[in-house]
Amino acid sequence: MSSMGRYIWRAFCARPIGMPIPPNWLGLAAFGLLGLVNPGFWLIGAGLEVAYLAGCVSSARFRRVANAIGVAEESRRSEERLGRAMDRLSPAESSRFLALDERCRLAIGDESRMGHEWHGVLRESLARLRWAYIHLLTMRRAVAGVIENETGGVSDRRSLPEQIASIESRLGDPGLGTDVRRSLESQRDVLTARVEARREARERLEQVDAELGRIEAHVELLREQSLLAAGPEAAAARVDAVATSVRGTARWIRQHQTIELEFEDELDAAPPMETRPA
Question: Which end of the chain is more exposed for a tag (fewer CB within 10 A), N or C?
């Protein structure tokens, strides 16, 4: 929706504090009912509505209020999206994300030193990198859940290798019945497959940890660069570096995301990083 369309919609739905229904709607309903008695009221109502909307949209004060409301709503939606993502993390992982979030804000640097345009672009790029980071944390938690339980199940608390060794020992009994042997062999194959799945999960966990560490090191480097170098040229170099990192991380996630993360947002739809008051 264009900015003019948003202004018109906010004027149409404007509701003073304490009123459950916008007064504009009540006026439209009143003229609609009067028009059933005399259709001329419909023309009067339409004219008044156009005049009301035009007056609101042409008012600089109304536009400022509408913009402030839009910013507040976008901020609220962003916080909700981040909250839903963090709900999937453990307390330790949430703390890890919050630490990176703080370093990202420090890496943005001072707007007065790099210019408003580059400052906004860098903030947007770091927001995408931060969003990719929380995707990785969610992936890490899913992979870790696969290898947390090394036992065979509820009824057998032995480790999988212990169960396989026990089955192999039983299969060595020459007096074992055919049906029992077939069942034990099938169970052994299933347990062996689970051992292999856990081995692959451990490798994936190491890969995710390495990617998380790379992002953390990159953000820390950007933070240090923001203290040492200022100006548009330095900001442009930092933006290019972040954009390259985001593309690499997004490509890595899509290549290795074999576990459904249940994210309702795409990697590119990152919540903006709000500027905190000094």
Answer: C
How many other C-beta atoms lie within 10 A of the C-beta of residue 109? 23
Q: Above pLDDT 90, what percent of the chain? A: 10
The angle at the Cα of 30, spanning 29 to 36, to the nearest 5 degrees, equals 90
Cα(243)–Cα(238) distance, integer angstroms: 9
For residue 258, give the amino acid letter. T
Where do the structural domains in the chain lie, given as residue ranges?
89-159+195-256
Alpha-carbon gap, residue 250 to 29, rounded angstroms = 51
What is the C-alpha to C-alpha distance for residues 253 and 266, in angstroms, rounded to an integer? 11
Structure confidence at residue 174 (pLDDT): 81
CA distance 245 to 136: 14
If pLDDT is split at 50, 70 and 90, which confidence band does 131 have?
confident
Q: Around Cβ 203, how many Cβ atoms within 10 Å?
A: 11
| Cα maximum dimension of the chain | 101
61-82 pLDDT, tens digit per residue, is 888 888 878 777 776 777 787 7
User: What pTM was estimated for this model as a whole?
Assistant: 0.60
The two tokens of residue 224 are: 């240090």
21-25, long-range: CB < 8 A, 24+ apart: 24/49, 24/52
* In contact, 109 and 119? CB cutoff 8 Å: yes
Cβ atoms within 10 Å of 163's Cβ, excluding its own: 19
